[in-house]
């Protein structure tokens, strides 16, 4: 069964304290790995797409990496405004199917 | 604003009533998706359209749910005879047709069934 698992469920950091979020996946027909940020009561905001093992993408304090089994979202020197839920999703694409399979997210709180 | 637009943002309804939500995708996008998200969970896939054709439906989409996308533009999601278990955030997303491109989400419609 296709599955995406994120860890930890919640993470509390001090401002400036770097860390990583994990996303492991078992998805047949994987065509891409997506990261989204979601603020309370809002829709997910697109961050990155990774397509192949070894690929890396960066945006401000965030860097996403991908291996054949998992992806990491590295947060360098976080600020309070980085507090949000970070969602990982695998794109299952092929034949008649085309859908994102989401993990349950990591709730990040950055304290000043 | 050229993002995905959803209406209404919030809906409170009594159990047994019918509700309809609307989604306007990004204009150049021909793929449109509906997802449902409950508290503490990630979004769950409901259905997707390519232009006006509904190509896939999840088992979550019971016969009380129906989605349409007339003329391949906006889409509607209707829930008939709502139940308390239908309370959730309903999210719409759109993307280009080509392969692995990014899906962009709207702000969602928060449904509360009382």
What does this structure look like?
The complex is a heterodimer of chains A (112) and B (114). Chain A has 112 residues and is mainly beta. In chain A, 0% of the residues lie in helices and 63% in strands. Chain A has no helices and 11 strands. In chain A, the strands form 2 sheets. In chain A, strands 2, 4, 5, 9, 10 and 11 form a 6-stranded mixed β-sheet that branches. Chain A has a 5-stranded antiparallel β-sheet with strand order 1-3-8-7-6, with no helix packed on it. In chain A, strand 7 and strand 8 form a beta hairpin. Chain A starts with a strand and ends with a strand. With 114 residues, chain B is an all-beta fold. Chain B is 0% helix and 49% strand. Chain B contains no helices and 11 strands. In chain B, the strands form 2 sheets. In chain B, strands 2, 4, 5, 6, 9, 10 and 11 form a 7-stranded mixed β-sheet that branches. Chain B has a 4-stranded antiparallel β-sheet with strand order 1-3-8-7, with no helix packed on it. Chain B starts with a strand and ends with a strand. The mean pLDDT of chain B is 92. Classes of the chains: A mainly beta (112), B mainly beta (114). The A-B interface holds A 4, 31-32, 34, 36, 41-46, 49, 51, 87, 89, 91, 93, 96-105 and B 4, 6, 31, 33, 35, 40-45, 48, 50, 55-56, 91, 93, 99-108, 110.
Q: What does the radius of gyration of chain A come to?
A: 14 Å
Q: Which pair of chains forms the biggest interface, and how many residues does each contribute?
A: A-B, 27 and 28 residues
What is the β-strand count of chain B?
11
Structural class by SSE content of chain B: mainly beta
Quaternary structure of the protein: heterodimer
Low-confidence stretches of chain A: none
- What is the general shape of chain B? globular
């Amino acid at each position: 069964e296709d599955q995406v698992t994120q860890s930890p469920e919640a993470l509390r950091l001090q401002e400036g304290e770097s860390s990583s979020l994990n996303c492991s996946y078992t998805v047949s027909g994987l065509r891409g790995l997506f990261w989204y940020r979601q603020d309370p009561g809002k829709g997910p905001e697109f961050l990155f797409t990774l397509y192949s093992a070894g690929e890396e993408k960066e945006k401000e304090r965030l860097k996403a990496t991908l291996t054949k089994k998992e992806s990491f979202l590295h947060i360098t020197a976080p600020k309070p405004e980085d507090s949000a839920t970070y969602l990982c999703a695998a794109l299952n694409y092929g034949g008649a199917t085309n859908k994102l399979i989401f993990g349950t997210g990591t709730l990040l709180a950055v304290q000043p | 604003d050229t993002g995905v637009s959803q209406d209404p943002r919030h809906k409170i309804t009594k159990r047994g009533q019918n509700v309809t939500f609307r989604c306007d995708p990004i204009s150049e996008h021909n793929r449109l998706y509906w997802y449902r998200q409950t508290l503490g969970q990630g979004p769950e896939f409901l259905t997707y359209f390519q232009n006006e054709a509904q190509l896939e439906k999840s088992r979550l989409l019971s016969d009380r749910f129906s989605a349409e996308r007339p003329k391949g533009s906006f889409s509607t999601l209707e829930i008939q005879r709502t139940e308390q278990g239908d309370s959730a955030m309903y999210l719409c997303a759109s993307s280009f047709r080509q392969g692995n491109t990014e899906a962009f989400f709207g702000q969602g419609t928060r449904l509360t069934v009382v």
